[in-house]
Write a structure and sequence with these properties.
- The chain has 330 residues and is an alpha+beta fold.
- It contains nine helices and 16 strands.
- Strand 14 and strand 15 form a beta hairpin.
- It starts with a strand and ends in a 7-residue tail after the last strand.
């Protein structure tokens, strides 16, 4: 800490790892562009993985992939347990998704992202044995107000009161899945509106926690890895997240128990990521509510990224223009 003559305190500036990681998400997003709308999910993912791995290798840190795209035998994915970075600098857990929304990319739809989340080594919950989580995410207004154990209608009414908004102006983001049919009906029965997402509830959660967006809450059942990644972002935003594990089979529940996971337990932000030093970086592949997608503008390729850091509580938007000639045939 540094004390000024007036007695105020502020943190000594230090290195922001996320500003190096953004090069990896930019590269993955750019490499995915030729596959947008072409119906080739695997091709898009493979190109993004290769680009992300190459750029991560230049970053000054010792990262271990805790949340990747599969096991080592399924290479060329960035696999769970893979070491990334140049081996120097801080030891970190890393969650990667070279394309969050491969189906969106293949179909040419909105809201596909390339993203990375990072925390101190050993901080991220390993929930890989259970594929799904039930989640609820809001901004800071939801802290001490919203509780995943209560019906969604109660949570909507409580959040509306805390935000000083009519219930009719509350918008809840939900993945558009058959499993959510009754859940969506319950939301709409309160008078609140829904924002149905085809894929990618990480962006929905971040938009729910950010100030000034049109989404007030993100709720419902989605991937466990995405829950951990969202928690890294929420810590930087000062927002609220709760999750419970949602096994779909008895065998899956047993695997979770064997791995030390807790069922009938509410995981708070500090349970999901046991660190106050988290980073989240995302670059748009296609246009979306969080960031714009990659754009080719004559000789320029333009990317837009969001960079979140919990220690400093900063949200940065990074727009970069890349000479297209540097990306051709490389």
């Amino acid at each position: 800490m540094v004390t000024t003559e007036t007695g105020s305190l502020f943190l000594q500036p230090d290195r922001n790892l996320a500003l190096e990681l953004v090069r990896a998400t930019e590269a993955a997003a750019i490499r995915a562009v030729p596959f947008i709308g072409k119906g080739d999910k695997l091709g898009a993912d493979g190109a993004a993985v290769d680009a992300m791995r190459k750029f991560l290798g230049t970053v000054n840190f010792d990262g271990v992939v805790v949340i990747g795209e599969g096991e080592k035998d399924n290479a060329p994915m960035l696999f769970n347990g893979e070491h990334v970075g140049n081996g120097h600098g801080p030891s970190c857990d890393i969650a990667v998704d070279p394309i969050d929304g491969t189906s969106l990319t293949a179909a040419g739809r909105q809201n596909a992202l390339s993203m990375i989340a990072v925390s101190d080594r050993g901080a991220m919950l390993d929930a890989s044995t259970v594929f799904y989580m039930d989640k609820i995410v809001t901004g800071a207004e939801g802290i001490g107000v919203v509780d995943i154990r209560r019906p969604i209608a109660e949570n909507i009414r409580a959040l509306a009161k805390a935000k000083g908004k009519p219930i009719g102006e509350i918008v809840v983001a939900v993945l558009d899945r058959p499993r959510h049919a009754e859940f969506i009906e319950a939301i709409r029965a309160t008078g609140a509106g829904t924002r149905l997402m085809l894929d990618g509830d990480v962006a929905g959660g971040i938009n729910a926690a950010m100030y000034g967006t049109r989404i007030d809450m993100c709720a419902g059942i989605g991937g466990s890895p995405e829950g951990i990644v969202t928690a890294c972002a929420i810590k930087a935003l000062g927002g609220f997240i709760q999750t419970t594990l949602y096994p779909t089979k008895d065998e899956e529940r047993q695997r979770g128990l064997d791995a030390g996971l807790k069922f009938d337990h509410v995981y708070e932000a500090d349970d999901l990521v046991r660190s106050d030093n988290t980073f989240f970086v995302a670059t748009g592949v296609t246009d979306g509510g969080l960031v714009s997608g990659v754009r080719r503008m004559g000789p320029i390729i333009r990317t837009e990224s969001i960079v979140l850091r919990s220690r400093s509580g900063t949200i940065r938007r990074v727009t970069a223009d890349h000479l297209a000639a540097k990306w051709l045939d490389h």
